[in-house]
Amino acid sequence: MKIRYFAWVREKVGVEEETLELPADVTTVKDLIAHLKTLDDNHALALADEEVIRVALDQMHVEPHEPLGNTQEVALFPPMTGG
């Protein structure tokens, strides 16, 4: 699965994107974030406050309980503001 990072999440993780094989028990967005936090200190720091991280599955914004299903691309980013 392709994981893309944006804005300060990308800066803290240290990469723009990566492709990962996920364990079978990673089935929801919340599971994915928990798994990513175990990869290294950069991921753990970037995703420490899960409540502020926004997620899109195949370019559709979703909530943490959303199943990953056959998702091809996950995007993680901080909250956005408009104006």
Classified by CATH, the class is Alpha Beta
Specify the biggest β-sheet: 5 strands, mixed
- Average pLDDT, rounded to a whole number, is 95
Please tell me the total number of domains.
Answer: 1
Based on CA atoms alone, the radius of gyration comes out at 12 Å
How would you describe the shape? Answer: globular
CATH architecture: Roll
Order of helices and strands: EHEHHEEE
Head-to-tail CA distance between termini: 33 Å
- Predict the CATH topology: Ubiquitin-like (UB roll)
Strand order of the largest sheet: 2-1-5-3-4
Count of helix runs = 3
Q: List unreliable stretches of 5+ residues.
A: none
Strand count: 5
Residues in β-strands, percent = 15-25%
SSE-based structural type:
alpha+beta
Share of helical residues? 25-40%
CATH superfamily: Beta-grasp domain
Protein name: Molybdopterin synthase subunit MoaD
Pfam family, one: ThiS
Organism: Roseibium hamelinense
Topology:
Layout: E1 2-5, H1 7-13, E2 17-19, H2 29-37, H3 41-46, E3 54-57, E4 60-62, E5 73-77
Parallel strand pairs: 1-5
Antiparallel strand pairs: 1-2, 3-4, 3-5
